[in-house]
Predict the structure.
Amino acid sequence: MATTLLVTGGAGFIGSNFVRWLFDHPTRPADLRIVVVDLLTYAGNLDNLESVSEDPRFSLETADISDRPAMRDLFRRIRPTAVVNFAAESHVDRSIDDASAFIRTNIVGTFELLEAARATWSEAPEEERKAFRFLHVSTDEVYGSLGSEGLFREDTPYAPNSPYAASKAAADHLVRAHFHTYGLPTLVTNCSNNYGPFQFPEKLIPLMILNAAEAKDLPIYGDGTNIRDWIYVEDHCEGIWAALRKGRPGEKYNFGGSAERSNLQVVDAICSAIGKLLPPGENTALGSRGLQSYPDLVTFVKDRPGHDWRYAIDDSKARRELGWAPRHEFETGLEQTVRWYLENTRWCRRVQEGTYQRERLGRGVGTAEASAAL
């Protein structure tokens, strides 16, 4: 039986990294066919898939996952062996400004995917039904905010604090319900903050890299003490593949990078890494501002509403059951990331054309003030 993997949101940051990683990975089945479905909104870009676009085992469907007829038709045509759902509106600040797209994509879209999968799966031969998997990629933000101690476990009660987190929490519950009510073989994964190549520059790390390279301000919310756990995107991709192959239907798995850092520590690390690759004395933009170091660009701006203070992941279940562990130390992965952005300025320019100029989002009103966004 040929393996057809449907990857939704496969032109976005994590989804495209997953697709490229699979094509390069030795454990990938030789007969694996990958079908990406993506609406190609501002964060989904065909340039992200350029390296695999000519491979005969790859194909792209431009469609909205919340479009019921389109999803039903797609599932009937390709009859996927497995689904990995990356498709999501994923930026907290945008959800604060207008949550409607998050409700449509993250909740309605996930529901339509589940229903299309259930319709196809229920009619399949027994062998295909046993082999089928629906893996939903979620976030640690569904758990809410931690104090100075503790870790998010798979059984941590949900307590989302932003419209984005609430929409992902709702989607997680729908996936769980389809397993318990209908028997659809589903999995949910919840990850900490991803970083790495091809991330749209509204997020903290690419935003700070590009701003530093252009000697623009490095604005940090509040006092910079909010803490996140960071995972290099390839480590996350490896975890998703492990869950798809080894995970037990109906279960959820947390993936973290064991790399808790405050926002200020992250920006300091970026300044250090970019200082090695683009020394301050060689950055004419920095000199034109009369500044001698990248930390001189750091500024503090008004915090966003409902800003969770700390996230941290307990990934012991994934390590134990899936044999997975992150391979990248934060500083090593960050230096690789900084290098990639400095060497791929064409990609950076293209993804921002006419859509986003690193302005501040997430205050409920329009503003031209740039911000550090998580």
